[in-house]
Amino acid sequence: VTKITKVILGKSTAVNIITMSSGKTLTCTPSHPLIASEEMDIIKSVKVKPGDYLLTYNQKLDKVEKEVVKSKETLEGEFSVMIFELEDKEHTFVSNGIVSHNLDNKF
Known about the structure:
Shape: globular
Helix content: under 10%
Strand content: over 45%
């Protein structure tokens, strides 16, 4: 289990709602990094499009697998967001079943 060591509160003028073929959804900022492959290829959520693959966590099988993006919706407005600093040196975590990355604040 990855331990969160710090939570930073912020604002964003847009969020993306990404829906996977399994129905898993993630609401995140356009700059939120997601993992696109087992090789740890990282893609910003703003660049994700339907038909792309992202890594997801299958809880029933207790494994990470590639899954196709079904849709992406962008909402504009004023949104409160949280940035997590993680104890894990790999900086990966699962958000609503979708594998995310925090890039150690280098993004």
